[in-house]
């Protein structure tokens, strides 16, 4: 499937910024499930300082903002040709060792709830147990926007019984690691059936299985990733793969508007 994507972020400030630095992970890379046909990253009101591939294999850019601009625009756009591989991304690559994806993080730390959830996953084969886990997460945590935020830990989201794709992914990752699987967070885009316009990017999980490599599980939709998905960044949790993160110095108040389109 050939997908055209535009991810437009606009930051507005009520006063000049003394200084700000942002890290962008907004550039997809070609791989087993996709080929990037064309892609551009535009920043207005900011200067790119450096570009590098991080330890998780993500194309990463650092941009700085200093003084005058009251509006910063970041726009990533392009065309990606995707392939349906039944959720299989393939063998592990990159600098980060597999054992790193079995470690707890602040957002993916197991309590009694996730420990019990992991024990309920059933199946003779590893892939069956992980599909069972995906169904359990979807069953236990209703998809509701605005009930959690970027800093909500997996155990808290499970206890609340509601959240968004980020929370579903964190719960799955935490439980999968308890079950003995390396598991990682994936941020990217999803072509939806009923609309081109979206309010946010998408997130899902990948678990590493012997003989298959990385396999994708989208708890929010109850499926493995197919050719409607575009992978952009991976990491241990949201903080390693978030599209835009940064710091700013000064008293200026910030307003953010995001517009994303994913169309065939």
From TrEMBL:
What range does the record give for the signal peptide?
none
The cross-references to SMART domains, in alphabetical order and at most eight, read: TGc
InterPro entries per the UniProt record, alphabetical = Bac_transglu_N, Papain-like_cys_pep_sf, Transglutaminase-like
UniProt domain Transglutaminase-like: residue ranges: 157-221
Read off the Pfam families from this record: Bact_transglu_N, Transglut_core
Record PANTHER family? BLR5614 PROTEIN-RELATED, SLL1049 PROTEIN
The protein's name in its UniProt record: Transglutaminase family protein
